[in-house]
Amino acid sequence: MTDDSTFEDINVAKADMDHIYDQSDPRTYFRELNKLDYAIPGIAKPIFQKLIGHLHKRQHDTVHVLDLGCSYGVNAALLKHDLSMEELYEHWGQKKLADATPQEVVACDRRFFADLDEPEDIEVIGLDQSENAIAFAKAVGLLDEGLVVNLETEPLSALAKEKLAPVDLVTSTGCVGYLTEKSFDRLLPAVTQGRAPWMANFVLRLFPFDAIEETLNDWGYVTEKLEGQIFFQRRFASADEQEQVLEQLSDLGIDPTGREAEGHLLAEFYLSRPVKDAAEIPIKRLLPA
Ligand SMILES: C[S@@+](CC[C@H](N)C(=O)[O-])C[C@H]1O[C@@H](n2cnc3c(N)ncnc32)[C@H](O)[C@@H]1O
Fold this sequence. Notes:
By secondary structure, the protein is α/β, with parallel strands linked by helices. The chain has one domain: Rossmann fold (3-Layer(aba) Sandwich), CATH 3.40.50.150. Helix content is 47%, strand content 17%. The chain contains 15 helices and eight strands. Strands 1, 2, 3, 4, 5, 6, 7 and 8 form an eight-stranded mixed β-sheet that branches. Helix 3 packs across helix 6 (85-93) and helix 11 packs parallel to helix 12. The longest helix is centred in the first third of the chain and has 20 residues, at 40-59. The chain binds S-adenosylmethionine. The site of S-adenosylmethionine (SAM) has 20 residues, from helix 4 and helix 5.
């Protein structure tokens, strides 16, 4: 069982990125993460799309996605539009935007995203503690709803609970670790008011998922890990970060040879579903390699 003080300790090993999470627009976020080849939202996209496709077939209606730690609407941009991470890096790194004010970036992005097709029938609710990131993602139309809340320290408001009732799929990339079982404990009563949603989390190998899994169990969920698949999140920010992460992995009994030892911060994929849904279609059939 992991307690949140363990997650706090692990977070000390990771490079501190807090300064890029709460800006008026995503330019700094994308500039800094480009240097580290941050890729996990793009790698997660086809897996999230398969889950959305499946849920869509099941309910023949708009799929409501809740993206945890959504930041500037990165997963929403990828899932709503035919865009890749490379294209997002190019877009927010373009010279034309370098000297623009945040208001000009919002105006430009509103047009940019409005002109793109939306092939998927989805609505995205984003949740993040960053007020600026949520405000940006809502202003440019990436999020249909935005919830500014830190569920580690505060409960959901009554209005937020209402907005979360229709959620069919909960997604996250680069977020578990900041969020612990505490957040899931506060989220679960709200998202299970109707049909309990599926939960699709990409989680760094250095964050044990067991405490979140136990919380989900209490709400009738079963969690499966996509076995044999490891996903590139980003390169290490420094030799120091790598050294600390390798130490943490060694404490967990995880062999980093040829992986984190080569400089790659790696994630695994956990799918949590109500017991009945998981029994109907095992993860291997849902997401074949
Ligand atoms: C590494 S970023 C990932 C953003 C996005 N999902 C992506 O992959 O590009 C982590 C995000 O988690 C948010 N975050 C950190 N702690 C949080 C908390 N306690 N509650 C809500 N959001 C949090 C940060 O503001 C930031 O936007």
